[in-house]
Structure formats: C-alpha cells, structure tokens
Amino acid sequence: MAITAQMVKDLREKTGAGMMDCKKALQETDGDIEKAIDFLREKGMAKAAKKADRIAAEGSTYIEVDNNSAVLLEVNCETDFVTKNDQFKQLLAELGKHLVKQQPETVEEALQQNLHGDGDKVENYINSIVAKIGEKISLRRFTVVNKTDNDAFGAYLHMGGSIGVLSLIEGTTDESVAKDIAMHVAAVNPRYVSRDEVAEEEVSRERDVLKTQALNEGKPEHIVEKMVEGRLGKYFEEICLLEQNFVKDPDQKVKKYVAAKGAAVKSFTRYEVGEGMEKREENFADEVMSQMKK
What we know:
By secondary structure, the chain is α+β, with helices and mostly antiparallel strands. Strand 1 and strand 2 form a beta hairpin. Strands 1-2-3 form a 3-stranded antiparallel sheet. A 3-stranded antiparallel sheet has the order 4-5-8. The chain has a two-stranded antiparallel sheet with strand order 6-7. Helix 1 packs across helix 2, helix 1 (about 5-15) packs across helix 3 (about 35-40) and helix 4 (about 85-100) packs antiparallel against helix 6. Helices cover about 45% and strands about 20% of the residues.
C-alpha cells in the first residue's frame, strides 16, 4: 500500500514519534495506522504519545556561544519544576551545541538532523528525554547569530532562563557593553533597535491615531501637528532601544551610552518563555471542590 504524507502526519500526531519512524512503521504494517501505533509502542518510540496534546508553556531559554557564532533557544515543558531537572538542563546544553554548530534554518530542519553524527536524530533525543521525565517537551524556536572578530555578543538569562536575550554589538569586543544592552532589553522589552527599523506604515498609523486624539481633545488645528510630532517621539522611546533611557543610568539614552563606547547595536533577540502561547489555568480551590464531590 502506498504511504501518503497525510498518513505519516496523522500517525505522528497520534504518537509523537519522529516523521521517518512513522513512515517506517506504516510501511512495516502495510498502512494500518492502529498496527503502526502498536509497532511504535513496541519499539519504544511512542512513549511520548500521551504527552502530545498537553500544554507545554513553561520551560527555559538558553544561550550557547561558540567563538563567532551564538544561538538563543527556547525549550518548553509542562511545569516549571522540570526546568530544575539535570536531564532537562543537559538537553538545553546538547541542543545549544548542536544548533550553534549546524545552524539549521528552521526547527523542523533541526529536528531531523543527526545530533552526534551517530544517526540518532534531534527529535528522537528529545523524545527520549520526554520518556524519562514524563512531560511533554519541545524545541519551540531558536535564533543563530554570527559576528566578526571586531564585534561582541551580549548573553543574558534572567531568572534562570525565563527571559533570554542575545545582543550583537559592532565596533567593540567588550562583552560587558554587549551584556549591558542585553540586560536593558530583558528589562524594557523594546521592539526595534532604532527608528529606521519601524515600518513607515506603522509610523503613519500611529501619527493618524495621535492626530485624532489631539483633535478630540479640542486642541487648535494649527498646533496639532507639533503635538503629534512630540507624542510620536514618546512613541519611539517606548518601542526603539536606542531612544530609551538606559536602565543602568536613566539620565542618558541607550544610543549615547553605546556611542560613548565607540560601538553600535547591530541586533538583539529577546525570548520570554511561553509568550504568545496558551497557558493552563489551574484553580486549586475548584480542584479541591471537584475532588470532594466524587
């Protein structure tokens, strides 16, 4: 029987096993999905199956630096407790080393790569940790950054990895400067490095909103334009790193601090664990009441 991509996808969703393992299981069982599930279970490849539909919005960020390359990654799990587990910490380290060396383009590509050159895929390694720990664990995202010998990485993990920031500073090799910027980004959470990065469409939309607000406040039309430009400056301070007051010295802007070091901010990436993900809402009182009714 011909094995289709949809069949492989369905089996993968049911078992949590690797894509190629699912394809092989279907081939071995002539496309019978129930027998394929049993095949994977017998081979120990579907131990993570029951975890597949659980919410994994906890976890940790991690940074690996290797000479002129660095990676910031996020791995999710179900409970914050697991992030203290030595096996979970080892998983972060192994993934960091792999990603910074191989520099895959996507998570999907990374999962299908060999981890140690011995044929064992990254995805299978993660599933083996899932089987040991007993929670759903997944590599959510990563960003690889490369620099020259004249630049510096700033690596900062806040609260054990709940927030991770990787900055790239040009014009200096002083990592303390780069880390200062990373710490600022962790605290203030800017969206852009500078005004130049903000799309004109976004600026125009904000300008229109501010103009309408000013007119609604009854301000004379001849001074509205000046007011709008002033308020637009405040808007840039909220979203642009270089326009913000430096957290370690609020009396100066970030751009002034960086310029004084003869440097420039090239980029930054900020991950906050679980941002944008659905999180499980648990109510202890409700849980106790439900148990009492049984």
